[in-house]
Amino acid sequence: MRLRNIPGSREAIAAHNLCFTEESPQAGNWQDIFGNDHPIHIEIGMGKGRFLTALAELHPEINYVGIERYSSVLVRALEKIDARTEPLPNIRFIRMDATDICSMFAEKEVSRIYLNFSDPWPKDRHAKRRLTSIEFLKRYDQILVPDGRIEFKTDNQDLFAFSLEQAKEAGWNLEAVTRDLHHDTTLNEGNIMTEYEERFSSQGNPICKMVLTRHYDSQ
């Protein structure tokens, strides 16, 4: 999908007090940024922020960080935050490519990672760019706490199959797997739908979800 460029979006992001960019590494600084030692949950590829904002409202005891590479998308999330009557002190944003995730979070600094409807990068030569590839799982392994977890949702069956294979090959534990989330009473309990999830499910596409935990020999 081609994104419409929004003039001035990069400048607006750079000037926003809740947003960081890849030019400003923050690994190890998040307790100071939030002013507490609450667990940190991150969403990579957060889009316009609906999912993460809903979580932040429901769980003030958790700090949330949304990561989005496209300025024209992230600026919309910031506009929504600015339009709120009640502030959300437990949410921050980063404009960056997830390849550099380890420059933004230190070892064992993150408790949970959400991956929602990530770009499938369908061409084989782009497989390493998929956010559930072995290359990215290695990065997540560095920043997650020992009992941390990854929650991944998609409607793309090929990407889901690829992700299952990559997780197993990398030695991660498949804590839960479903190919029809909205009819899985256990995994769907408390599920927060993203904009994409509503759109895809309304078209009759089943939503797949997996929950991963780190391999047992990780230190």
Give a verbal description of the structure:
By secondary structure, this protein is an alpha/beta fold. The protein is 29% helix and 22% strand. The protein contains 7 helices and 8 strands. It has helices at residues 9-15, 30-34, 50-58, 71-82, 134-143, 157-169, 195-202; strands at residues 19-21, 40-44, 63-68, 91-95, 110-116, 144-154, 173-178, 208-213. An 8-stranded mixed β-sheet has the order 1-4-3-2-5-6-8-7, with helices on both faces. β3, α4 and β4 (91-95) form a beta-alpha-beta unit. α1 crosses α4. The chain starts with 8 loop residues before the first helix and ends in a 6-residue tail after the last strand. The mean pLDDT is 93.
What is the structure about, briefly put?
This protein has 219 residues and is of the alpha/beta class. It is built from 7 helices and 8 strands.
Q: Give a short account of the largest sheet.
A: 8 strands, mixed
| Quaternary structure state of the chains depicted | single chain
Strands ordered across the widest β-sheet: 1-4-3-2-5-6-8-7
- Count of DSSP-assigned helices: 7
Q: How far apart are the first and last residues' alpha carbons, in Å?
A: 39 Å
What's the shape?
A: globular
Instruction: Give the overall pLDDT as a whole number.
Output: 93
User: What structural class do helix, strand and pairing data support?
Assistant: alpha/beta
Q: Whole-number radius of gyration?
A: 17 Å
How much helix, percentage-wise, in residues?
A: 25-40%
Strand content: 15-25%
Give start-end ranges of low-pLDDT stretches. Answer: none
The strand count comes to: 8
- H/E topology pattern: HEHEHEHEEHEHEHE
